[in-house]
Amino acid sequence: MRESTGGWRTCGESVLTLPLFQSASWAARPPRLSRKISLPGRARVIHLWHVDRTRSGVLAALAAFFLWGILPIFWKLLGFLPPQSIVAQRTVWSLLLVFAILFWRGEGRALLEGLKSPRALAWHLLSGALLASNWLLYVWATLNEHIIEAALGYYLNPFFNMLFGALWFGDRNSRWQMAAIVLALAGVGIQIPAVGHFPWIAVVLAVTFSLYAVVRKKAPLGSLVGLAAETSLLAPVGLVWLCISSASPAAAFGGSWGHAALVVGTGFATALPLLFFGYATRTIRLTTLGILQFLGPTIQFFIGWKLYGEPMTNGRLLSFGLIWLAIGIYAADALMKREPAPAA
Q1: Which residues of the chain carry a pLDDT beneath 50?
Q2: Which residue range forms the structural domain that includes residue 109?
């Protein structure tokens, strides 16, 4: 069986001789022509397991980016609350759900040990602040008819990741990657005359999320434990805000059972995509993941344009055209690198 590296694996095989031309009485006489076909045993099982694992990883990635893509619809449904209260509720309910998953996986001790470290506290306090500011701006943009500009921010995110990777970690970008960055920045520049102002929402969303990635790369705790640490630090602030800003406990939940269900759903809207994404990162190539990530902002783009009727001018289309061209270059360059799949 040929592996992804291009080599051949030799395992125990069973060899079966099958006739290529059979008739009704083929068993009564020997076949005129036969070919030996190798049926790998254990090697075939391993191959099928890798195929199933990769397929499930791709499906998990698609689920994560699809859920992130349709989040504007969910935030619109929560429009009965101000953006600050939505983010506060999101931190509290995310904390409960992440804690449940963390202790189910037996990683509660790792969180307790991590929170004892001043270094870990400092890093995750910073990452939590960046995450909360990103959430707050995204929710505010959604509720104030800026879904398309928010989508632009998440289109730009990988290009800022490349820039920050070069600045902080010495990552080397290829000529094609640099060309993609220049095209993406040109697309941002065209937005200024197209919409009449600098697209600050898009830039701040991209910068805060890229800085969040930089800080998380330096932070000592793992992905799930780190998220639990961040929500542990953010949730008390959220609770204080809800107590100060809400006239009553019922008002904090929107005043009805339907609204309360939506509020509780903020935890699932946060945690479910992260769980799918976490599984995908362990099972498929980061190249594949990097290309699939553009599904989310593409869905957001069309939701803002077609579902909520946000304006789309020729200048804005030209701007997005340059960014989509940059994405195409980014994807082609990533595919040519042939990054190996994650180890099982």
Answers
A1: 1-37, 39, 47-49
A2: 60-337
Please state, in angstroms and rounded to a whole number, the distance separating the CA atoms of residues 37 and 18: 7
Distances (CA, A) of 252 to 26, 33, 225: 79, 79, 28
* Mean pLDDT of all residues belonging to the chain: 83
Question: Can you give the pLDDT at residue 254?
Answer: 79
pTM of the model: 0.79
Number of domains present in the structure of the chain: 1
Residue 200 lies in a domain: yes
pLDDT digits (tens, 9 = 90+) for 4-58: 434 433 333 333 333 333 333 434 444 444 444 454 555 555 544 455 777 888 9
Domain contains 135: yes
Nearest to 120 by CA among 228, 276, 209, 32: 228
Percent of residues, the chain, with pLDDT higher than 70: 83
Residue 51 forms part of a structural domain: no
Asked, for residue 102, whether it belongs to a domain, the answer is yes
